[in-house]
Amino acid sequence: MERLETVVELTSVSKHYAHGVVALEDVSVGFRQGTFTAVMGPSGSGKSTLLQCAAGLDRPTSGRVVVDGRDLTTMGERKLTRLRRDRVGFVFQAFNLLPSLTAAQNVGLPLRLTGRRPDPELIGQSLEAVGLGDRARHRPAELSGGQQQRVAIARALVTRPAVLFADEPTGALDTGTSRDVLRLLRGLADAHAQTIVMVTHDPVAAAYADRVLFLADGRLHGELPDPTAETVTSRMLLLEEAC
Ligand SMILES: Nc1ncnc2c1ncn2[C@@H]1O[C@H](COP(=O)(O)OP(=O)(O)OP(=O)(O)O)[C@@H](O)[C@H]1O
Question: What UniProt keywords apply to this chain's record, in alphabetical order (predicted)?
Answer without folding.
Answer: ATP-binding, Nucleotide-binding, Transport
